[in-house]
Recover the amino acids of this structure.
């Protein structure tokens, strides 16, 4: 039984830190039908992102802001994550993603000029993290329905970051060791 239920608030004490073996593990697929426990865990994960992006709540509970949170970052061995971000048109997107698979990607790569960060990493890591500019994934929602999603730009970077977590890959694994700021 998971401690993550509808009345539970995830805080930084729940975030698994770099060096924990679960962050390097390929996570187990979520079984269908999606259990109520999984639904509650996803709800808690998304609530953390909402709280972390609210300046008042984040300050009160000392939450680091995040745009994505994968299950292993709270100690769960499940192929799922949540994201909360704004599209280029300003529209806020909140997604709960289960068992995602990359279907296709653009040949072009991009990176965040300021570099990527991670709630599980408490140190600054400098360097460009190459990511596909556009991706298409297939994934399930919490009702067990399969969807196809397309992402580009920042959202593509975010989704690739979270999908890497599901395979035990950290963002800094992609940084060129000899030339961290090599343009991709």
């Amino acid at each position: 039984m998971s401690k993550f239920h509808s009345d539970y608030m995830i805080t930084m004490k729940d975030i698994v830190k770099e060096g924990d073996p679960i962050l390097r593990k390929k996570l187990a697929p979520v079984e269908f039908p999606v259990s109520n426990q999984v639904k509650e865990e996803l709800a808690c994960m998304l609530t953390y992102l909402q709280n972390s992006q609210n300046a008042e709540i984040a300050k009160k509970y000392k939450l680091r802001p995040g745009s994505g949170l994968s299950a292993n970052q709270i100690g769960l061995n499940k192929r799922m994550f949540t994201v909360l971000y704004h599209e280029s048109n300003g529209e806020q997107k909140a997604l709960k993603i289960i068992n995602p698979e990359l279907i296709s990607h653009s040949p072009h790569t991009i990176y965040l000029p300021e570099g990527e960060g991670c709630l599980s990493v408490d140190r600054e890591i400098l360097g460009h993290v190459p990511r596909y500019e556009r991706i298409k994934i297939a994934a399930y929602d919490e009702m067990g329905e399969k969807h196809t999603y397309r992402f580009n730009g920042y959202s593509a970077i975010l989704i690739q970051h979270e999908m890497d977590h599901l395979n035990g890959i950290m963002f800094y694994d992609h940084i060129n060791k000899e030339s961290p700021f090599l343009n991709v």
Summary: The longest strand covers residues 92-105. The radius of gyration is 16 Å. The mean pLDDT is 95.
